[in-house]
UniProtKB/TrEMBL annotation:
Pfam family, one: Amidohydro_1
Biased composition (Basic and acidic residues): 411-424
Disordered: annotated span: 411-436
Molecular function GO labels: hydrolase activity, acting on carbon-nitrogen (but not peptide) bonds
This protein's name: Imidazolonepropionase
Length: 436
């Protein structure tokens, strides 16, 4: 049993601050949260591990709603996936999981791996064989034949095949269904602004998934693919970047308002590279700020593992979100209780309250005023088990001669781009993407 005492505790679904707070943990559960001064002597069991943590903030463990453990965050993650055996992929994924936990991510949703390797990793963590965050798994992202991420092994065409693939995934034990509503930036021959499935195909997949008790995440970059996913009734919209062949033009107002009025959560995959991305794409509009201003429900996600995006940059992604004029308080909710609700975990994690699983972190300072305080971890508990973070390498800036595939394609088709933009796009051939 732990009794953790800290200068600040962020409690409940709204992260209300308790000054001079305490949290009592028995096995994998939180049993009491409140002011330390209100603890009676008989609430201190003789065998309790009482820790006076001092000037730290105790808060829920962080949630990354979109990761890829099977991608290694290098310049060429797809090439590695295609070259490795399942056993090699599982070994990589176990390492990726530890990296997430090492930065305070105690829950993650893996939205695409080859076959069902992610289910193997999830179960190894759940039964204590390995350490990592609680995982929600999707298996291979369901795509059209030759469509985006076809190499994950879940191609399907037509209503009947799509339904059957959802059933196959359910049989294999996945937690969530991932649909590729549009193309993407990491698959040759795929364009992110092109819709892949018809609305009827998407609706069939959603209906089948919901019948089986699974939520549905839709990868959707292009405006038409976003519209179709919205009409089909998906639960989370991944990326939601409103890309067109002409580049980034900001959110479509009518669709943004419809998303805000719906039950859909937007998972924008805003990672620590976003600041560099915005500098390189200056003058081009991004949808995230407009979606927030129109009332969309935003959850924190990073697409960790894609090109040049290692798994230990979660906090940088939160900082990048705040730079879209999203208040820090809302950013913190997007990484805790709101994300738990979006992922179907609202009764298990995402807040410090009696009866919840003991997923929590302690950080030096106060993240309510400075999100970078989240980098200063002093304690990580995942389901009541303490974890000592691994030493992680520094995240290097993008090389000067680097331009992601997504940027190249936008600049090449952006009628407003300068000739120097287009020349740079043609000259830089590194096959990578910041926003997959």
């Amino acid at each position: 049993m732990f009794v953790l005492i800290a200068d600040r505790v962020l409690a409940g679904p709204d992260l209300e601050v308790i000054n001079g707070g305490a949290v009592i943990i028995a096995e994998d559960r939180i049993v009491w949260v409140g002011r330390e001064a209100d603890l009676s002597a008989d609430q201190y069991p003789p065998d309790a591990d009482v820790r006076w943590l001092g000037d730290v903030t105790l808060m829920p463990g962080l949630i990354d709603a979109h990761v890829h453990l099977a991608f290694d965050g290098s310049p060429h993650p797809v090439a590695r996936m295609m070259a490795e055996s399942d056993e090699q992929q599982v070994a990589l994924m176990l390492r990726s999981a530890r990296e997430l936990l090492s930065v305070g991510v105690t829950t993650a949703r893996d939205l695409g791996a080859r076959g069902y390797t992610d289910v193997v990793v999830r179960d190894a963590i759940a039964n204590g064989t390995a350490r990592g965050p609680r995982l929600l798994t999707a298996g291979g992202a369901i795509t059209t034949t030759g469509g985006h991420c076809w190499f994950m092994g879940a191609e399907a065409d037509g209503i009947d095949e799509v339904r059957k693939m959802v059933r196959r995934h359910h049989k294999a034990g996945v937690d969530v269904i991932k649909l590729m509503s549009t193309g993407g930036n990491m698959t040759p021959g795929s364009a992110p602004w092109h819709a892949q499935f018809t609305t009827d195909e998407l609706r069939a997949a959603v209906d089948e998934a919901h019948r089986l008790g699974k939520r549905v995440a839709a990868h959707a970059h292009g405006t038409e693919g976003i519209r179709r996913a919205l009409d089909a009734g998906v639960d989370t919209m991944e990326h939601c970047s409103f890309q067109t062949e002409d580049g980034m033009g900001g959110a479509d107002p009518e669709l943004a308002d419809r998303i805000a009025a719906s039950d859909i959560y937007v998972s924008p995959t805003c990672n620590f590279r976003m600041r560099e991305f915005r500098v390189l794409m200056k003058g081009r509009d991004f949808a995230l700020g407009e979606l927030y201003r129109r009332g969309a429900k935003i959850i924190a996600s990073t697409d960790a593992g894609i090109d040049n995006t290692p798994h230990h940059g979660f906090v940088g992604g939160l900082v990048a979100m705040s730079e879209f004029d999203i208040p820090i308080a809302q950013v913190l909710l997007s990484a805790t209780s709101r994300s738990a609700h979006a992922l179907g975990l609202a009764d298990r994690t995402g807040q410090l309250a009696a009866g919840y699983e003991a997923d929590l972190i302690a950080v030096a300072g106060d993240p309510r005023t400075d999100l970078r305080a989240l980098d200063e971890l002093r304690l990580v508990l995942a389901r009541g088990q303490e974890f000592t973070p691994d030493a992680l390498p520094a995240i290097e800036p993008l090389p000067e001669d680097f331009l992601p595939m997504s940027m190249r394609s936008m600049l090449e088709h952006d009628h407003g781009g300068t000739s120097s933009d287009r020349d740079a796009a043609a000259a830089m051939a590194e096959p990578a993407a910041l926003v997959r």
